[in-house]
Amino acid sequence: MDLFIAAILGIVEGVSEFLPISSTGHLILTSHLLGLPHTDFLKSFEITIQVGAILSVCVLYWRDLLVKPAVMKRVALAFLPTGVIGLTLYPVIKSCLLGSPSVVLWALAAGGLFLIVFEWLYREGRDAVARTEDMTYRQALIIGLFQAIAVIPGVSRSASTIVGGLLLGLKRRTIVEFSFLLAVPTMAAATGYDLLKNAAQFSLDQAQFLAVGFVTSFVVALISIKFLLRFIQTHTFISFGVYRIALAVLWVLFLF
Known about the structure:
mainly alpha; 12 helices
C-alpha cells in the first residue's frame, strides 16, 4: 500500500459508508481490484478508516449526540445487539468473512434484490414516527437487531438499519438520520476493539496510511451524508438496489 492507495480507499469508504451499498463490501472489492493482499493490516485499515466517516456524523449531528439524552438512550439501546454479536463473532468475521469477495458479491446481489422488492411493496403510514426521540425503546432495540445482520460483509449496515426502521413505522428521513447516529458507537466500538488487539503491530509507515485514509473518508463522508438527505426527499432506494445487483453481476462476468 502507498499513500495514493490509502486515499482511494478513504474515498470509497466516505462515499459508501452511509449509502445502502455496504462500505465494507466496497472496500473488500476495491482492495481485490487493486491487487492488495488481504493481510491483517489491510483488514484493520478497512475497519479503522470508518472512524473518519463516523467523525463526519459527530460534526453534523453534535447536538443530537450531546444535548438530546432521549436520542442517545435509543442509540445506546440499538447498539447493544451489534455490540454483543460483533464481539462474540469477531474472530470468525475477521478470519473468514472480511476479505472474501464471494461473500460480498452474494450479499450485494441478495440485498439489492431485497431493496427493490421492499420498495415496491412499502407504503409509509400516516402515523409514521417523525422524530428520533419519539421512537419507542422496543423499536430502537429491533432496529439494532436489523443492524446486526450487517456483520456479513456486503449486507450494508445502513441498508439493514433503514429497512428495519421503515418496517417499524419510522419516516424515511428519521430512520436515515438514526442510522447515521447509530453508526457512531457501532464503528467506534469495532475500531477500538480491533486497534486494541492489533495496534502494537502497526509500523510508522502504516500509521501514515491510516491517517490519510481517515482524513479522506471524513471529508468525503460529509458530502455523502448531505447527498443522501437530499436524495431521499424525492427518491426511493430502488436505484441503490439496481446498482448492487449490477455491480455483483459485472464483477462476476469480468473480474471474478
